[in-house]
Amino acid sequence: MTLNKKKKNNSGQPRMVRQVNLQTVTRQMRRMELFSKIDLARELGISTTTMTKLFAQLEDTKLIERSPVEDTSFGRPKILYQLSPTLQVAAIVIDLQDTIICFSDLQGTIKPENQVKFPTGNNVDDLFSTIEREFKKLKQKLEAPCNVVGVCLPGLIEKETGQCMLNPNLHWLEGMRPAAHISRTLGIPAFVMHEETALSRAQLRTPDASSNYITMDFSAGVGMSVVVNGEHLSGGSGYAGEIGHIIMQPGGRPCGCGNRGCLETLASDRAFYNELQMTPEESLEALATRNPRATKIAGHVLEWQATGIAAAINIFNPDRVFVYSQLADAYPYYIEDMRLAVEKRTISLMYENCRIRTTHEGKQTGALLLTIDHLISTATGNID
Ligand SMILES: [Zn+2]
């Protein structure tokens, strides 16, 4: 997902290609419980020599291990491998309302007992001391060997340093380097990722996965992640995708970024709750039970969401758009209404070739998957 376009590996092959191959391999490993070098090489069209080298690296770093099971179906027994069943990764997802710490195996399986959630609050020292305390407690409870922690954040994050440069909804994190801080306090390597990249990564789990897709996040704010030909677009400074801060109504409602009338103030779940002046739970209940006022406000929010989606479709020509929004779940016939609204705003050829759907694969799943990707990349020397 995070690819470096400039650097090359020793073979002269763009690093990006190797990275994509590696992700394909590890994704396939996660799909198959047991796998052999030959079967995996054949399945993915990769040479057995390359696969043997990769297996050696992954076995050395204990990410995969030989399975006690052997495949003897064709005479000579075939050695089968499995992802390490004991190794765990952890992700810390810091969001506007809540922070979640979660552990998973190398399959990215989320279990309720492997996670803890607490309010993010509004004080940097309190947040990081709570993270430290809760992380240590959970790790001890799970007795989890954990080699890496992914830290998932909103806002603009400088890729090289991991520093929060601008955070419209959590200003007090600006100037911080959360991954470096967490790594120091926990004594475990940590790296930072953007929440929209995590959300986008999670969509590769869906049966509807594609190599040209857009993820639209309409939850606390409005964010977007774009994947074109399998490559995540990060932009020159890594800040691409901030569609939520395009001004739609000059002089409109104040936005956390300092401007007024941004798409985020009109199209997010939070905009819906604020306008309705109810809690998220009350708002969603009112919408699901077709309260007239909630329905009317949600209709306006949907129209703004459609404007954002249509702009993205016209610019990037994706074949899938994944919508992440609680309003979408509570809104009766959301997809039908959304399609009509988007159709009015797009070039029809692009609209016809694009499927819009809602998604429940969230930031937490994506953060864990990106952390697993990072662990495997690091182990095989493919650090981006
Ligand atoms: Zn804004």
List the helices and strands and how they pair.
Elements: H1 15-31, H2 37-44, H3 48-60, E1 64-71, E2 78-83, E3 88-94, E4 98-104, E5 115-119, H4 124-142, E6 146-153, E7 156-157, E8 164-166, H5 178-186, E9 190-194, H6 195-202, E10 213-217, E11 223-228, E12 231-232, H7 264-267, H8 269-276, H9 280-288, H10 292-316, E13 320-324, H11 326-330, H12 334-343, H13 348-352, E14 355-358, H14 363-379
Parallel strand pairs: 3-6, 6-9, 10-13, 13-14
Antiparallel strand pairs: 1-2, 3-4, 4-5, 7-8, 10-11, 11-12
Helix pairs in contact: 2-3, 4-5, 6-14, 8-10, 9-10, 10-12
The site of zinc ion (ZN) has 7 residues, from loops.
Provide structural commentary.
With about 375 residues, the protein is of the alpha/beta class. It has 3 domains: about 15-85, Arc Repressor Mutant, subunit A (Orthogonal Bundle), CATH 1.10.10; about 90-200 and about 365-380, 2-Layer Sandwich (Nucleotidyltransferase, domain 5); about 210-360, Nucleotidyltransferase, domain 5 (2-Layer Sandwich), CATH 3.30.420. The chain is about 40% helix and about 20% strand. It has 14 helices and 14 strands. It has helices at about 15-30, 35-45, 50-60, 125-140, 180-185, 195-200, 265, 270-275, 280-290, 290-315, 325-330, 335-345, 350, 365-380, and strands at about 65-70, 80-85, 90-95, 100-105, 115-120, 145-155, 155, 165, 190-195, 215, 225-230, 230, 320-325, 355-360. The strands form 4 sheets. Strands 5-4-3-6-9 form a 5-stranded mixed β-sheet, with helices on both faces. The chain has a 5-stranded mixed β-sheet with strand order 12-11-10-13-14, with helices on both faces. A two-stranded antiparallel ribbon has the order 1-2. A hairpin with a 6-residue loop joins strand 1 and strand 2 (about 80-85). Helix 4 crosses helix 5 (about 180-185) and helix 6 (about 195-200) crosses helix 14 (about 365-380). It starts with 14 loop residues before the first helix and ends in a 5-residue tail after the last helix. The model is unreliable at about 1-15 (pLDDT under 50). Zinc ion binds near residues 168, 255, 257, 262 and 264.
